[in-house]
Write a structure and sequence with these properties.
- By secondary structure, the protein is α/β, with parallel strands linked by helices.
- The chain has three domains: 268 residues, Metallo-beta-lactamase, Chain A, CATH 3.60.15.10; 154 residues, Metallo-hydrolase/oxidoreductase (Rossmann fold), CATH 3.40.50; 104 residues, Ubiquitin-like (UB roll).
- It has an eight-stranded mixed sheet with strand order 7-6-5-3-2-1-19-20. Strands 8-9-10-11-12-18 form a six-stranded mixed sheet, covered by helices on one side. A five-stranded parallel sheet has the order 14-15-13-16-17, with helices on both faces.
- A hairpin with a 2-residue loop joins strand 10 and strand 11.
- Helix 4 runs antiparallel to helix 8 and helix 6 crosses helix 7.
- The chain is globular, with a radius of gyration of 29 Å.
- The relative contact order is 0.12.
Length: 565
């Protein structure tokens, strides 16, 4: 009999940043370690990862990191975690390859990575960890079964039961789940992202037919937008392109890495003679051959950004023309909806051949309501703990559980940090919490994006910045150059050139005050400039740009002393 605690450092009541911990008799098992993409309000933040200070403080008890699949919301913080904790990482061949692509050489040690398959079993005393293959839109996706003396704990990861959608051994998957059910399922941790979907997700065959119809109607070049981690759809577009005798170019720096990995490992099949490496556009090369299919990829907002550049003819590789057909297969991530809508508007200004699919055909590869019911009926868990989703997704599991006759008293909706305790197979309660939080990543810098930095970025994003510059003779206290005004993101100045004169008047008034004093207090000079200009700008145009006075104090008559001979 065991003492079991279940908690999350990320992934509950949010979209992304999945990191779940199963504690069994003091042993810590980490299930996934992902990142979350920031919303549009977090200016300059590239990614958000979980605060793992609890794991670092208890690193001697960590048995390993067990990964379900290679999407960033499940593996994106593994590299950061390995910098603080020396432990083994378990995952499929393709998942581990994606993780190792992001690691520093010092952490990329073969002995730290253990490849597992659906038949693999790892033992820790009386605890066994097994894996089973699942269908998802990236190769090497797995579910995890933790066998304890009190029953199995099953973490599904992302999955679907759509047998037409994936090259998955469904027989093996069902055998693994049936075996786990016979042994007894103590707790099921199912994904809940698709819990609100009523089972109306279009089939992969319907998706393929719609795309083929678009290819039939296309007279010229075809441009398709996809997310870089959607290898299944990338392969499908390639296959359809081949069937129409077209050549393919794939754009997107990260996607090139993923695609090359997938090709080398046999997960993607793209004939070399049909792949095109586009060169920069010049007078003799337009990259607009009629038989060309350009797959535009990236993460989050990147496909939209690239399409915008192409529509404005400032991209170096592709300029969208009137005869092009644009197929948009990217459902906007939270926080990118406005950018997605603006991109469509820009595309329609260039070409009327813009194609969208119904939203049900673009639903990601997540279990819907009917598939979650099927999972519950198959496993008959004692306790149900929805994971991988926002609160509305977790809450939707209540209705699903009710439909299959599950005891709702045994359905537990947790928040990040809540510690659910089970002793000897019986629910004890929420016995406390572990510290949780978010660490913001700006480029290569981790965790140094503080509140002050974010506030400044918000101001820059809203009203821009206004620089007022002047070179002043520190000895004669005279202006050596005219006042120069530079603005970025502050559009009022461009639309109202006369406003520059108002700014210069304020500058001259304050300069006259300070430059007539015996000793110039440069700090007060700048503060008064900043305050008075802020009041002027707000009074005139109700904006609050960041105002930066740049006063350069120089003495042109100063001569550098000669070195002693």
């Amino acid at each position: 009999m065991s003492k079991i605690n279940i908690f999350s450092l990320g992934g509950l009541q949010e979209n992304g940043k999945n990191l779940y911990v199963i504690e069994i008799d003091e042993k810590l098992f980490i299930l996934d370690a992902g990142l979350k993409y920031p919303t549009s309000e977090l200016y300059g933040v590239d990614n958000i990862i979980p605060d793992t200070s609890f794991l670092v403080e208890n690193k001697d008890r960590v048995m390993g990191i067990f990964l379900t699949h290679g999407h960033d919301d499940h593996i994106g913080s593994v590299a950061n975690l390995l910098e603080a904790i020396d432990t083994k990482v378990y995952g499929s061949r393709f998942t581990l390859a994606l993780v190792r692509e992001e690691l520093k050489p010092s952490l990329n040690k073969d002995e730290s990575f253990v490849e597992v398959k659906d038949s693999s079993e790892i033992k820790y005393g009386n605890i066994k960890i097994r894996f089973y293959e699942v269908a998802h839109n990236i190769p090497g996706s797995l579910g995890i079964i933790i066998n304890t003396p009190d029953g199995n704990i099953i973490y599904t990861g992302n999955f679907t039961f759509d047998q037409n959608a994936h090259q998955t051994d469904f027989t093996s998957m069902y055998e693994s789940l049936v075996r786990a059910s016979r042994e007894g399922v103590l707790a099921l941790l199912p994904e809940s992202l698709g819990a609100l979907n009523e089972g109306g997700r279009g089939t992969i065959l319907e998706f393929k037919q719609r795309i083929e119809n678009m290819f039939v109607k296309a007279d010229g070049r075809i441009i398709v937008s996809l997310f870089s981690n959607d290898l299944q759809r990338i392969q499908m577009i390639v296959d359809i392109s081949m069937s129409f005798g077209r050549r393919v170019a794939i754009l997107g720096r990260k996607t090139q890495k993923i695609v090359n990995l997938a090709i080398n490992m046999g997960y993607l099949n793209i004939p070399e003679d049909k792949m095109v490496n586009l060169k920069f556009i010049d007078d003799t090369r337009k990259n607009n051959d009629k038989d060309l299919v350009v797959i535009v990829t990236g993460e989050r907002h990147e496909p939209y950004f690239m399409l915008q550049r192409m529509s404005k003819h400032i991209d170096r590789l592709v300029h969208i023309e009137a005869l092009d057909t644009i197929i948009v297969l990217t459902n906007p991530y939270p926080g990118t909806e406005k950018m997605a809508a603006r991109t469509l508007d820009m595309l329609y200004r260039v070409t009327t051949n813009v194609r969208n699919l119904k939203s049900n055909l673009l639903i990601e590869s997540h279990a819907d309501r009917e598939e979650l019911k099927q999972m519950l009926n198959l496993l008959h868990p004692k306790y149900l703990i929805p994971v991988i989703g926002e609160y509305r997704h977790q809450y939707a599991m209540i209705q699903i559980a009710r439909c299959v006759g599950f005891n709702l008293d045994n359905l537990k909706i947790l928040d990040n940090g809540d510690v659910l305790s089970i002793n000897d197979g019986q629910y004890v309660g929420i016995i406390g919490s572990v510290p949780v939080g978010e660490i913001m990543i700006d480029g290569d810098a981790v965790g140094d994006v503080g509140d002050v930095v974010m506030r400044d970025r918000e101001l820059l994003g809203e009203d821009g910045v206004l620089l007022v510059c002047c070179n002043i003779n520190s000895r004669t206290k005279k202006l050596l150059t005219p006042v120069e005004i530079v603005s970025k993101g502050f559009t009022y100045l461009k639309e109202n050139e006369s406003f520059r004169d108002e700014i210069i008047k304020v500058f001259n008034k304050i300069a006259d005050k300070y430059l007539h004093e015996r000793f110039v207090n440069w700090s007060d000079f700048k503060n008064d400039l900043k305050n008075d200009l802020s009041r002027l700008v707000y009074k005139t145009c109700k904006a609050n740009p960041i105002i930066i006075p740049v006063l350069i104090s120089t003495d042109p008559d100063y001569k550098k002393p000669e070195k002693a001979k």
